[in-house]
């Protein structure tokens, strides 16, 4: 696979990689040692990793978002930063989903949350059929199950 050189502060944005490095204290503390030791990421494609790194570069100085459950924060937590909106907008569903899976695997919470908001925004106001068509989701409910769900909701 492809190899990427990544700054230490960007590496630390990934909970998964930070945990891996913590398992090897000599590597975690030595910037020069880490530059020569690749970390395999079998669940992340090269294209997704390029996008992850671009997002991380833009957000490396961001403060960690606190999650509070009051009305002010709920509204703020639903907003997608302008840079992220522009970053995600040209992506097709496959790229967006691959990036979402990469953010999940790498445990980059901010990226994961912003993609989730972007996806939610894309499906808001659409019918079940429109969402299935747009996202290539197969309807695996029987007509009886669909009717039961409609009655329940």
TrEMBL record:
<dbReference type="Pfam" id="PF01466">
    <property type="entry name" value="Skp1"/>
</dbReference>
<dbReference type="InterPro" id="IPR001232">
    <property type="entry name" value="SKP1-like"/>
</dbReference>
<dbReference type="InterPro" id="IPR016072">
    <property type="entry name" value="Skp1_comp_dimer"/>
</dbReference>
<feature type="domain" description="SKP1 component dimerisation">
    <location>
        <begin position="109"/>
        <end position="153"/>
    </location>
</feature>
<dbReference type="Pfam" id="PF03931">
    <property type="entry name" value="Skp1_POZ"/>
</dbReference>
<dbReference type="GO" id="GO:0006511">
    <property type="term" value="P:ubiquitin-dependent protein catabolic process"/>
</dbReference>
<dbReference type="InterPro" id="IPR016897">
    <property type="entry name" value="SKP1"/>
</dbReference>
<dbReference type="InterPro" id="IPR011333">
    <property type="entry name" value="SKP1/BTB/POZ_sf"/>
</dbReference>
<dbReference type="InterPro" id="IPR036296">
    <property type="entry name" value="SKP1-like_dim_sf"/>
</dbReference>
<feature type="domain" description="SKP1 component POZ">
    <location>
        <begin position="1"/>
        <end position="61"/>
    </location>
</feature>
<feature type="region of interest" description="Disordered">
    <location>
        <begin position="61"/>
        <end position="82"/>
    </location>
</feature>
<keyword id="KW-0833">Ubl conjugation pathway</keyword>
<protein>
    <recommendedName>
        <fullName>Skp1-related protein</fullName>
    </recommendedName>
</protein>
<dbReference type="InterPro" id="IPR016073">
    <property type="entry name" value="Skp1_comp_POZ"/>
</dbReference>
<comment type="similarity">
    <text>Belongs to the SKP1 family.</text>
</comment>
């Amino acid at each position: 696979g492809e190899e990427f050189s990544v700054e230490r502060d960007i590496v630390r944005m990934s909970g998964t990689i930070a945990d891996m490095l913590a398992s090897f204290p000599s590597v975690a503390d030595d910037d020069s040692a880490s530059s020569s030791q690749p970390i395999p990421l079998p669940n992340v494609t090269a294209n997704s990793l390029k996008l992850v790194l671009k997002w991380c570069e833009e957000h490396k100085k961001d403060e960690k978002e606190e999650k509070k459950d009051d009305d002010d924060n709920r509204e703020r937590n639903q907003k997608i930063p302008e840079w992220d909106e522009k970053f995600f907008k040209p992506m097709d569903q496959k790229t967006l989903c691959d990036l979402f899976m990469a953010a999940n695997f790498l445990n980059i919470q901010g990226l994961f949350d912003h993609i989730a908001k972007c996806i939610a925004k894309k499906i808001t106001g659409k019918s079940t059929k429109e969402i299935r068509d747009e996202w290539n989701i197969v309807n695996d409910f029987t007509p009886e199950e669909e009717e039961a769900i409609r009655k329940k909701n």
